[in-house]
Amino acid sequence: MAGSKYAYVRNFELPDPLLPGTFLVCRLDGHSFHRFSDEHGFSKPNDERALRVMDAAAQSVMEEYKDILLSFGESDEFSFLLRKSTQLYNRRHAKILTTLTSYFTSCYVFHWPKHFPDTPLRYPPSFDGRIVQYPSAREVRDYFAWRQVDTHINNLYNTTFWALVQQGGQSTTQAHATLKGTFSKQKHEILFSRFGINYNALPEQFKKGSVLVREIVQGKRDKKDSSRDTMAISLVHCDIIGDAFWDARPHLLV
Ligand code: ATP
Ligand code: ATP
Ligand code: MG
Ligand code: MG
Ligand code: MG
Ligand code: MG
């Protein structure tokens, strides 16, 4: 098709390919969710309804984009791992990033009323996003380990902080001061001795975050009636730092 005399402006749109053969990790994070969580009455430190909305949005994203093999969520963020051979949108950076971010955001809004039936959205939430390219499985594993360690550190801090405020009667300023410079061991001690909370007994969902993983479901294997393997997405709250998770799922890192 012949273009108009204006069509030359198209040449100012530059290609933005992601490197071939690299693992792509896309991380989304809620914009100003400190405020969003206040305005929508999230319970502290962990509102389970809010976590369920995030998990549901991520699940929808994985149903739509089959090259996402794994995702990990905590608080207001989710990270998505795309297989290194993905040809999604010809590996165009902006196209992948903007469609994933916008699809996640609209799924968040779409799923909201199921989990917050009595809390209408007061304003439209938004998410920022980035894509990082990793050359090998080592960095991918370390990336997810980094996010899960972060989940643990934040959750220990937040759990202790909110115990000091909600049960200890401290102001938020006082609670910050109490925790300033404390080590992990001291936070466990404050929780246990002052509030009778055994941190290790808290739900895995809060300590480990949410892992959505595409699992291979084996088809029937008997001679008469065999069927193909299929894939299913499962939600677990397990360790992804050690080897066990990855050794059981070699398909994630090929
Ligand atoms: P930014 O726009 O820079 O990301 P932010 O306010 O979103 O700013 P984050 O560091 O992303 O800051 O932290 C997200 C905040 O959202 C948490 O500190 C917490 O206050 C709140 N939040 C998110 N999810 C939950 C949840 N499930 N339960 C309670 N609070 C939550
Ligand atoms: P891509 O994902 O590549 O953008 P697309 O299907 O969105 O694919 P576009 O070139 O963006 O393709 O075209 C948008 C299409 O959406 C139009 O061709 C038309 O079919 C439909 N569309 C958009 N807005 C309207 C509208 N207001 N009324 C009727 N059809 C519309
Ligand atoms: Mg941020
Ligand atoms: Mg945020
Ligand atoms: Mg965040
Ligand atoms: Mg279009």
UniProtKB/TrEMBL annotation:
Transmembrane segments: none annotated. It is an enzyme of class 2 (transferase). It holds the Pfam family Thg1C. Keywords: GTP-binding, Magnesium, Metal-binding, Nucleotide-binding, Nucleotidyltransferase, Transferase, tRNA processing. Binds 2 magnesium ions per subunit. One of its GO terms (biological process) is tRNA modification. It catalyses: a 5'-end ribonucleotide-tRNA(His) + GTP + ATP + H2O = a 5'-end phospho-guanosine-ribonucleotide-tRNA(His) + AMP + 2 diphosphate + H(+). Residues 6-135 form the tRNAHis guanylyltransferase catalytic domain. Residues 139-241 form the Thg1 C-terminal domain. The keyword Cytoplasm does not apply. Mg(2+) 2 binds at D29, D76. GTP binds at D29, G30, H31, S32, F33, H34, S75, D76. Its cofactor is Mg(2+). One of its GO terms (molecular function) is GTP binding. Mg(2+) 1 binds at D29, G30, D76. Adds a GMP to the 5'-end of tRNA(His) after transcription and RNase P cleavage. This is tRNA(His) guanylyltransferase. It comes from Coniophora puteana (strain RWD-64-598) (Brown rot fungus).
